[in-house]
Design goal:
This protein is 70% helix and 1% strand. It is an all-alpha fold. β1 and β2 form a beta hairpin. α6 runs parallel beside α8, α14 runs parallel beside α17 and α41 packs parallel to α43.
């Protein structure tokens, strides 16, 4: 409000006798109240309130409606006294029942509804509004009967109360008990109106109940349901009451927060509701049956773990009721194939059969009031909910359920039920595809029947557009989830798709929406063909319709058709090349158009590129046209990325297409785009340039390639190693071609210095490293005048900056691990250069120079790290046995000062022994067998390197000697030796699993504790060495013996080191091969949870004189146990809430949460893992109930973490660690607040958020954490 004068003018205008003035004045007042800057003194606030309330009674409806709109902004900035005044006035109007007061009453109803709706839950006035409003609303129906004239009042009151409960449930917490009791009493009373609204209101209110309150409500409702059931024979209207109470149970399950106690109560209610549903007979009981089925669906969806023992009964009951139809005499739903054979015949025959397929006059008794379809729909939804919740239950009854559902598709006359059946079948197919081989096999066997049922609906003239679309969606889901399962049904499927896509079949079949779904299915069918041959008749049937759809005016149809065209390209290439011209025209006609949707543009460009790449040899003149259009699309930034990818596909084509002058134009444009900051565009440009240079060198000039080299050289940095690797691949292609001498010279001048600098990066990764070594090998193999192999080796081993070699050298400045990474990278590059020279004498000479450089072992320093690494890499690729002094030099280097040098010497000796196994491996074994050897640990590292590189032939004598030494040292007193021995044994076990794995398992059950721990750790390294797609004998052997390494016995071993090894092995197995770990979780997981508890016997205090130090010997074990729990959650436990206790999160949530209760208050390292684990559990539906039940126990240790104070003399490292810990804790809190439904209703959690998290110390940090999480979700 700008001032009292302006407000006075507004109030004067409102008091006018002219309704137009009053309208304008009220409008101006609304504008003032809506301003964020509006502030009023108590006196002005009182006057404004009186005026607004007076205007509610204005004779003009327009003025009155504007006054209603003024109420929310007025209350938002008003005092509690004003809020009370406004609510009293509105409630008074709400109670008016006379016909003459209808307008006033409407104003009260609308005013209260708008106030509740517009006042957010977080608004400061929310609590005051609810505190004043809730008791007044409850008073309207509490404790008195409602006469007929008051029915409308009670209905509006319940609607307002429901809106308040939905929007301000937490603020209503002080009134929960009174409101709940009043609603329950109202529902129990006879003769009441609007009971359904009261039940809806109670369900909405339950969303903000505590777990105990929600559980108590379930008890009360279940008690009333039981009472109604018991008195059903002598009490009028009992059927309606039972339906109401059953519906309310389902609504509570859907709305209330599924805490542990609540979930148990729901599980207890399941048998009673199922029994009531079974006992309900006759048409008069149909509402009760429907309500029971809806409740059972909610039970299965919200509390699957607790209801698991009842789900089989629920599923059988629901599947039987899917065929409930008292108006139909035919109840043979199981024979779903009957009549569907028409789909295999022509369209006319199919139509004739379908006309007679539905219910005939002799079978169906028409009843306009028939509502049996509601029961069938509820039953279908319940079957789907149980299938999602419990795959095990689905597997037991799969045959029956599939037959019932498919039969229902043929007989069902209600469209909405058919749609729900299709949706249920989609859920069943998805569930079968992801939960076990047996269930998937059953679904695959049923897939042809699904296809027949779906195609029959497509060919049925009586089916509506929605039904046909659902049929296509089900077929597409089946084809995607179960690849290859529809192979036997392709003929009927193609016939049905052709019918839908035919020009004269579109409108009758549903128009554009149905076409989009049909095209998506056609594209999926063709894209999943793989290398299998396709019947040309199928292509002939569908291709013309797909090509025609590509020109459709509706962008969704055109885009989907173009994607289907792209999927069709490989099929046309292999089996129907006569369609190539039409396919190309369909794509090119859309590429050439400019005024079209972006989705269509991208799909057309992608299709055109694929078409040219695979069918270019038969496209003729269209090939040049295609490339020209793609180059033209490079000019538009919107279509540029898609066009670059398409040009890259054409350039990479195995057909070696003649791109002519277009190749040079493309290379110039692509080189220019490398300056753009768009990362995907850069990567696509580099890939296309590599293909152009390597496969179309004859069409490119030296100058054009030189420009590309200059631009690519700028990208060879460690700022983005993926781009750097792609840039190096382009440069390698230039070097491999002899057609670009100037460009090759530019590589030496511009790219070589950058590559030498990249060698020194501590960020090097495998992809970029491979590209870098290939680049150096190609550089030497090119035999350029500017680059000599010896000079390049010198620059690599010199550690120079790589400028030009004339400015001197610069020693490596990186320290520790960074220096080691840079040294290993340089060594790999040195080996690549020697491989590029391809001269054994040159390699030996290089190795001799390196040996000479090492000199006296006593004088070795950090500068010699690179020489050791180089010797190791050279030794892997060549036999260096004849290099003089190499053995003495490497053994002597083991005495070098510093662990880095010793480690490098060990690796070098192992690398040399790989290539020179005949000389060096026996020497290593002879030394390492001597337990008193001072370098035994280092020599074991060398042996590990030999084994890792495949230098031990398991069929040779050395293999048995190696195993003998390893087993002899498995119980070594030195932990470092035992760890290396374990890794060696694990690596060997992968190659000889059948004999070595059982031998290791035998050691686990016998021998001393050290040997047991080493044997268990060996399986850890064996599991990590397995490849993700490994199908060797090792996987089968490991699956058999793994329980002996990570079962409950080793996990409960008396020795702490054995238990830690078992936990680490289980974690490694779950990470590397989840299928190995899943079968043993039921046995192993409880034992892992036991290791998360603090063992007081392992905590000791060491007296250091001036102070005492506490040592926790079990910390590493607990940390490993929590990390194992985290890995198992990610890799082995399904993300959805399943009912199988051994394999689902709902079955082991209690153990996880119990571990978190202690872990959140443990050591720093354990807390960090616990925070991450809590954040993940909060997103899992199966864990929500247990988390809510023990939320207070989780909040307490987190509160201590956030409020802990550091000592005044804390160093920077301690401050940084504490900051990391606080941020980690806040991330866990944010995950709970965002994903754990019902957490905000827990008093302890709400207080923790308000006072601690949003307190002065952490409020800003928490806001930043929430912003980060929001940004991550968007990405």
């Amino acid at each position: 409000m700008s001032g009292s004068a302006a407000l006075g003018a507004i109030l004067e205008k409102i008091s006018s006798h002219d309704k137009d003035y009053r309208y304008m004045g009220t409008s101006d007042l609304l504008a003032e109240l809506s301003k964020d800057s509006f502030r009023a003194t108590p006196e002005v606030e009182r006057k404004v309130t009186e005026v607004v309330l007076k205007q509610l009674d204005d004779q003009s409806a327009d003025v009155s409606s504007l006054a209603v709109k003024c109420i929310p902004p007025l209350v938002k900035g008003a005092s509690e006294k004003t809020t009370e005044t406004v609510i009293d006035a509105l409630c008074a109007k709400l109670a008016m029942t006379a016909k003459s007061d209808a307008q006033r009453r409407d104003a009260g109803v609308i005013g209260l509804k708008s106030l509740v709706a517009e006042l957010g839950d977080s608004h400061p006035a929310s609590g005051a509004v609810v505190a004043s409003l809730a008791p007044k609303l409850v008073a309207f129906f509490a404790g008195k009967s409602t006469d007929e004239p008051d029915a409308a009042v009670v209905g509006d009151v319940l609607d307002i109360l429901r809106a308040a409960a939905t929007s301000h449930g937490r603020a209503m917490a002080p009134h929960h008990a009174a409101t709940r009791d009043a609603l329950l009493a109202y529902l129990k009373s006879d003769g009441r109106v609007a009971k359904k609204r009261a039940a809806q209101c109670l369900a909405a209110l339950a969303a903000s109940f505590t777990d105990a309150a929600a559980a108590a409500t379930v008890d009360d409702v279940l008690g009333e349901l039981s009472a109604c059931t018991a008195s059903a024979g002598s009490r009028g209207g009992a059927g309606d009451e039972r339906a109401l109470w059953a519906w309310l149970l389902g609504a509570l399950a859907r709305c209330a927060n599924a805490g542990l106690e609540f979930s148990k109560k729901i599980a207890g209610a399941t048998p009673a509701v199922a029994e009531l549903c079974e006992r309900a007979r006759g048409e008069e009981e149909e509402p009760t049956r429907e309500a029971c089925l809806q409740a059972l669906e909610a039970f299965a969806a919200r509390c699957p773990g607790e209801c698991a023992v009842h789900l089989a009964r629920v599923q059988c009951l629901a599947s039987d009721l899917t065929s409930y139809d008292p108006n139909c005499d035919d109840d043979d739903d199981d024979d779903d194939d009957l009549g569907d054979s028409a789909a295999d015949a022509g369209d006319d025959a199919a139509d004739e059969d379908m006309d007679d397929d539905e219910y005939g006059d002799e079978e169906y008794s028409d009843d306009e009031d028939d509502s049996s379809w509601k029961i069938r729909r509820a039953a279908v939804k319940t079957v789907a909910a149980v299938a999602r919740a419990s795959p095990a239950t689905l597997e037991q009854n799969f045959a029956k359920i599939a037959s019932k559902m498919l039969g229902r598709l043929r007989r069902e006359r209600e469209e909405s039920v058919k749609l729900d059946v299709f949706e249920a079948l989609e859920d069943i197919v998805r569930t079968c595809a992801g939960h076990g081989e047996s269930l998937e096999a059953a679904a695959r066997a049923c897939a042809p029947r699904i296809a027949r049922a779906a195609t029959a609906r497509l060919l049925d003239r009586t089916s509506g557009a929605k039904v046909k679309t659902a049929a296509l969606r089900l077929t597409r889901e089946t084809a995607a989830a179960l690849p290859g399962s529809l192979e036997s049904s392709l003929q009927t499927l193609v016939t049905a798709l052709a019918t839908v896509l035919a020009p004269n079949g579109g409108p009758a079949a549903g128009g554009s929406a149905l076409k989009v779904e049909a095209l998506a299915l056609a594209g999926l069918v063709f894209s999943t063909r793989g290398g299998q041959p396709t019947d040309p008749a199928f292509v002939d049937s569908l291709a013309p319709h797909i090509f025609a759809a590509a020109g459709d005016k509706y962008y969704k149809v055109a885009a989907e058709a173009l994607r289907a065209c792209r999927a069709l390209v490989p099929v046309v290439e292999r089996d129907a090349r006569w369609h190539a011209a039409a396919l190309a025209e369909a794509a090119l006609s859309r590429v050439g158009a400019t005024d079209q949707d972006q989705e269509v543009k991208d799909a057309a460009i992608s299709c055109a590129g694929t078409c040219a790449a695979r069918l270019g040899d038969v496209m003729g003149a269209d090939l040049k046209r295609c490339i020209g259009l793609l180059l033209d699309r490079l000019k538009n930034e919107i279509t540029r990325l898609a066009a670059v990818k398409a040009i890259g596909a054409v350039a990479k084509s195995e057909l070696r297409l003649d791109m002519g002058d277009y190749a040079a134009t493309a290379a110039t444009a692509l080189a220019g785009f490398l300056r753009k900051t768009n990362r995907p565009l850069r990567l696509a440009c580099l890939a296309a340039l590599e293909a152009l240079v390597s496969k179309h060198s004859g069409s490119l000039s030296d100058a054009e390639v030189t420009v590309a080299v200059v631009e690519a050289a700028e990208l060879v940095t460690d700022g983005d190693l993926a781009i750097a690797g792609s840039a190096l691949s382009v440069l390698e292609s230039v070097l491999e071609s002899t057609a670009f001498p100037n460009a090759a010279a530019a590589v030496c001048e511009k790219a070589l210095p950058a590559a030498l600098t990249l060698v020194r990066s501590a960020l090097m990764q495998s992809h970029a490293l491979h590209a870098l070594t290939s680049f150096f090998a190609a550089l030497v193999a090119a035999n350029l005048p500017a680059v000599k192999a010896d000079d390049l080796l010198a620059r690599l081993m010199d550690g120079g900056s790589g400028s030009d070699g004339a400015g001197g050298s610069e020693t490596m400045k990186a320290e520790g691990e960074a220096a080691a990474v840079a040294g290993r990278t340089a060594a790999v590059c040195v080996a690549a250069v020697c491989a590029g020279v391809n001269d054994a004498k040159h390699t030996s000479a290089t190795a001799a120079a390196l040996v000479k450089q090492l000199g006296d072992p006593a004088s070795l320093a950090e500068k010699d790290l690179l020489a050791l690494f180089c010797l190791g890499e050279l030794g892997k690729a060549a036999d260096l046995s004849n290099v003089a002094g190499i053995e003495a030099a490497l053994l002597g280097a083991l005495d070098a000062p510093g662990e880095e040098l010793k480690s490098a010497a060990s690796v070098a000796l192992g690398g040399v022994a790989t290539g020179g196994r005949g000389k060096f491996l026996p020497m290593i074994l002879s030394h390492v067998a001597n337990e008193s050897h001072k370098h035994q640990y280092s020599l074991f590292l060398s042996l590990r390197e030999v084994i890792r590189n495949g230098g031990v032939d398991q069929a040779a004598e050395d293999a048995s000697r190696t195993l003998e030494i390893l087993f002899a040292n498995a119980g070594s007193e030195e932990e470092g030796v035992r760890n290396v021995v374990a890794e060696c044994l694990g690596l060997l076990a992968v190659g000889d699993a059948s004999s070595l794995a059982p031998a290791l398992a035998e050691k686990v059950s016998s021998g001393d504790a050290r040997t047991r721990a080493t044997s268990v750790l060996a399986m850890k390294y064996a599991a990590l060495a397995l490849k993700a797609d490994d199908s060797s004998n090792a996987v089968a052997v490991f699956a058999q013996v793994l329980p002996k390494f990570v079962g409950s016995i080793p996990l409960r071993d008396e020795d702490r080191d054995v238990r830690r090894a078992a936990v680490q092995t289980l974690s490694a197995a779950a990470h590397a091969a989840p299928a190995l770990a899943r079968p043993i979780l039921a046995d192993a997981l409880p034992a892992v949870f036991e290791q998360t508890v603090i063992d007081e016997s392992g905590v000791r205090v060491v007296d250091l004189g001036p102070f005492k130090h506490t040592v926790d010997d079990g910390l590493e074990l607990r940390k490993a146990a929590f990390e194992c729990c985290d890995t198992l959650l990610d890799a082995c436990l399904p993300a959805d809430s399943l009912a199988n206790a051994g394999e689902s999160i709902s079955g082991c949530a209690s153990g996880y949460v119990a571990a978190l209760v202690t872990g959140l208050g443990d050591h720093y390292d354990v807390k960090m893992v616990s925070h991450a684990l809590l954040a993940k559990l909060a997103t899992r539906p199966g864990a929500s109930a247990v988390l809510l039940q023990r939320l207070k126990e989780l909040v307490d240790p987190m509160g201590k973490t956030l409020t802990a104070k550091l000592k005044s003399d804390a160093v920077k490292q301690e401050i940084d660690r504490n900051e990391d810990l606080v941020r980690s804790c806040l991330r866990a809190v944010d995950a709970c607040e965002a994903h754990l439904a019902g957490a905000s209703n827990d008093p302890a959690f709400a207080e923790f958020i308000a006072k601690t998290v949003n307190g002065e110390r952490t409020a800003a940090k928490y806001a930043a954490i929430k912003a980060e999480a929001k940004a991550a979700d968007k990405n």
